[in-house]
Amino acid sequence: MTRRLHIMPEAAPELAAGLREQGAELVGADEQPEGVIVTGMFKKLNLTEVLEANPQVRWVQLPSAGIELYSEILQRFPDLTWTSAKGAYAKPVGEHALALTLAALRGLKSRALATSWGTEGGISLNGLRCVVVGGGGVAAEIVRLYKAFDTHVTVVRRTSEPVEHADVTVAFEGLDQALQGAHVIALAAAATPTTRHLLNAERLGLLADGAVVANVGRGSLVDQAALAQALSSGTLRGAGLDVTEPEPLPETDPLWSLENCLITPHTADTTEMVVPLLHERILANHRRFSAGEPMLGLVDPAQGY
């Protein structure tokens, strides 16, 4: 069945060709689309206006894994089928989380800044106790990668439904117990009111001395003042952050000056990595939309992810 789709802001030629191959008709916002596909990263565009003018729309595809930018729009149109890119970027983001973890454990930022030979330092990931916070595709990929190092991995997520490869999976109520004595914590959860500053001073204090933090979720998950204090005091060995609050992180923020804190500018998944994966997700969901099958990356407006 032919579906009428409107793409915002515009379709890349290869995406347009792929959708047409599947039988889609690409139309303007004023031509009664049944589905709206947003390809502009971190942009609301005029999505609200398009949806208000098109009550026949049944499906909206968002381009990012985190959907907090669109939360108000989701609340206004909760009866639509909303899908995001959650899980689509799991491999590059999981890979980056592993890189940040290893860099923090091995003290690679300080060595990159060094101008002399220095002394030995760093510890191995092999055999460590790790906690991964999040229940999506990125968290699952981090678990898979960590397990290659014979680690013990506990996943903390909204429910205790087991995550593949994890040794233990617990609900958020078990977070404090999971953190007790852990050597590594990787954050890959969504930004919601309940996850704000999930990793605070008290919880940092539960970790083993010399633990490391890797955050590829959202900056709001971490109390950055508490993190800076723990890094400065040496309680934490190091941290690797791909996300901060705010973004960009001001040049005056104390985290920049810490030799044991490596910050990357939200580039765990660059445009070059993301575009083909997003197109793959869009094409897969268009096939499912046309066939009336369950869609990938379904968003629950009430939960916010």
Automatic annotation (TrEMBL):
Keywords for the protein's UniProt record, in alphabetical order: NAD, Oxidoreductase
Domain annotation D-isomer specific 2-hydroxyacid dehydrogenase NAD-binding: ranges: 104-268
UniProt GO molecular function: NAD binding; oxidoreductase activity
InterPro entries reported in the protein's UniProt record: D-isomer_DH_NAD-bd, NAD(P)-bd_dom_sf
One Pfam entry name: 2-Hacid_dh_C
Top-rank taxon: Bacteria
PANTHER family in UniProt: 2-HACID_DH_C DOMAIN-CONTAINING PROTEIN, D-ISOMER SPECIFIC 2-HYDROXYACID DEHYDROGENASE NAD-BINDING DOMAIN-CONTAINING PROTEIN
Identification of the protein by name: Phosphoglycerate dehydrogenase-like enzyme
Lineage: Bacteria, Bacillati, Actinomycetota, Actinomycetes, Micrococcales
